[in-house]
């Protein structure tokens, strides 16, 4: 049965020549510009958002959630600009420079809206300029949110969700995503009911958020499996995950979601987002790239060689620094300091690297990628010096090594300049 999910782009890898979605294809929905920007202090300017959106298109992101147009005039304008420029693959200049999104990929541009007409109108006003526009509307479904935040009964919440999805469709938007906020803490039967109703009303993607990052992997995977098994009409829509990182489980939960049937994963660059953030794009995508076979051959359309640049842009524009030991994009993610590790690396890089830095667009200034410190051994020092143009051995190497050790005791990281100074002293001393 053909999916009602709109064709993203004829050249996307999720479509076979007959335009039937490949069941193993995972759509990457990036919400750096919406949920990511909700991180305290992460406000970005319109031009910064446009640059990030362009880069996300280059990365091959399937859906860009460009903002929450009802939240401010500036957000509406930013989403609109992204819809016009990135959502149509315009390069924004006429100088015959290569177009953004090298393979001609045109992402879906999405705007967030609460379940009310005015939010939905503003979201549509912003995204309708895109070739593939999407409205993403949400309402909370957990007892605690309905009682204290919404002050609405279950029946009222279902009616609101159903009528607002239908309203979004009535505007001419044929791609509508619905999220039952706080699904991770919502009653199962109620979820099946509300999701079944919004499918009937025209929702094309059902996103299941663990809004407060409270689930753990097995639990979240089971939630997705149960929704898939029990929601009427679910076979005609895409199931999505949106996992917050309050317990540090967002990546694991997202992957469990995929394993149990989700085919859209909501993520952010560097994992930025509300409180402890969201599942990070680079972790989820690289986990699927390294181990997707174990999950039944799941794959994404992301060109991972643009990951490092995306991370650096978001770090700079959001002002949120990436911790050095952050998986995939942290400064130490491919650094090897202890002697045993360095020795292994020199013999075969696979001894301590499960992916190649070049795969994520990290090109090191040196071949070996060794970082020298107090735990480094002679082999690594010799290799590093060789790269720097000093081929020394025997007593000479031994002398430099002990001098290097005493400096390394005092300095955390030994730079190339430090090494050159050390070896120059040794070599040129009478
Ligand atoms: O965390 C959340 O529940 C959200 C929804 C709007 C998807 O951000």
Q: What report would you give on this structure?
A:
The chain is α/β, with parallel strands linked by helices and 430 residues long. The protein is built from 14 helices and 8 strands. The protein has helices at 46-59, 73-85, 117-127, 143-150, 154-170, 188-201, 217-230, 250-259, 281-291, 307-318, 339-347, 378-387, 394-410, 416-428, and strands spanning 27-30, 63-67, 108-114, 133-140, 176-181, 205-210, 238-243, 264-267. Strands 1-2-3-4-5-6-7-8 form an 8-stranded parallel barrel, surrounded by 9 helices. α2 (73-85) packs parallel to α3, α5 (154-170) packs parallel to α6 (188-201) and α11 crosses α12 (378-387). The longest helix is centred in the middle third of the chain and has 17 residues, at 154-170. It is elongated, with a radius of gyration of 25 Å. The termini are far apart. The relative contact order is 0.10. Residues 1-13 and 91-103 have low confidence and may be disordered. The structure holds 3-methyl-2-oxobutanoic acid. 3-methyl-2-oxobutanoic acid is lined by residues 35, 138, 179, 181, 207, 209, 211, 242, 244.
List the helices and strands and how they pair.
Layout: E1 27-30, H1 46-59, E2 63-67, H2 73-85, E3 108-114, H3 117-127, E4 133-140, H4 143-150, H5 154-170, E5 176-181, H6 188-201, E6 205-210, H7 217-230, E7 238-243, H8 250-259, E8 264-267, H9 281-291, H10 307-318, H11 339-347, H12 378-387, H13 394-410, H14 416-428
Parallel strand pairs: 1-2, 1-8, 2-3, 3-4, 4-5, 5-6, 6-7, 7-8
The site of 3-methyl-2-oxobutanoic acid has 9 residues, from strand 5 and strand 6.
């Amino acid at each position: 049965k053909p999916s009602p999910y709109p064709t993203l782009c004829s050249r996307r890898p999720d479509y076979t020549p007959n335009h039937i979605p490949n069941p193993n294809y995972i759509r990457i929905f990036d919400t750096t510009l919406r949920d990511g920007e909700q991180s305290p202090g992460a406000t970005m300017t319109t031009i910064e958002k446009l640059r990030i959106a362009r880069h996300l298109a280059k990365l091959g992101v399937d859906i860009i959630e460009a903002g929450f147009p009802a939240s401010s005039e500036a957000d509406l304008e930013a989403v609109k600009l992204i819809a016009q420029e990135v959502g149509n693959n315009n390069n924004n200049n006429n100088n015959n420079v290569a177009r953004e999104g090298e393979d001609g990929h045109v992402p879906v541009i999405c705007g967030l809206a609460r379940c009310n007409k005015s939010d939905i109108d503003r979201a549509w006003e912003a995204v309708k300029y895109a070739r593939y526009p999407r409205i993403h509307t949400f309402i909370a479904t957990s007892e605690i949110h309905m009682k204290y935040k919404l002050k609405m009964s279950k029946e009222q919440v279902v009616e609101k969700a159903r009528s607002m999805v239908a309203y979004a469709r009535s505007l001419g938007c044929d791609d509508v995503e619905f999220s039952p906020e706080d699904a991770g803490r919502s009653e199962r039967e109620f979820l099946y009911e509300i999701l079944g109703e919004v499918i009937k009303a025209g929702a094309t993607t059902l996103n299941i958020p663990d809004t407060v990052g409270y689930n753990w992997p097995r639990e979240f995977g089971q939630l997705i499996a149960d929704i898939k098994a029990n929601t009427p009409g679910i076979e005609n829509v895409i199931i999505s995950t949106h996992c917050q990182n309050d317990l540090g489980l967002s990546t694991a939960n997202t992957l469990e979601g995929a394993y149990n049937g989700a085919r859209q994963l909501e993520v952010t660059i560097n994992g930025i987002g509300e409180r402890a953030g969201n599942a990070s794009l680079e972790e989820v995508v690289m986990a699927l790239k390294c181990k997707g076979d174990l999950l039944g051959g799941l794959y994404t359309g992301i060109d991972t060689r643009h990951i490092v640049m995306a991370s650096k842009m978001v770090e700079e524009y959001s002002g949120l620094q990436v911790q050095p030991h952050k998986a995939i994009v942290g400064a130490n993610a491919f650094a090897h300091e202890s002697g045993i590790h360095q020795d292994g690396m020199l013999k075969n890089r696979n001894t301590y690297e499960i992916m190649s830095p070049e795969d994520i667009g990290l090109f090191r200034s040196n071949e070996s990628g060794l970082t020298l410190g107090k735990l480094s051994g002679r082999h690594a020092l010799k290799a590093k010096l060789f790269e720097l143009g000093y081929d020394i051995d025997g007593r000479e190497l031994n002398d430099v090594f002990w001098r290097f050790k005493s400096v390394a005791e005092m300095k955390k990281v030994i730079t190339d300049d430090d090494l050159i100074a050390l070896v120059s002293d040794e070599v040129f001393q009478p």
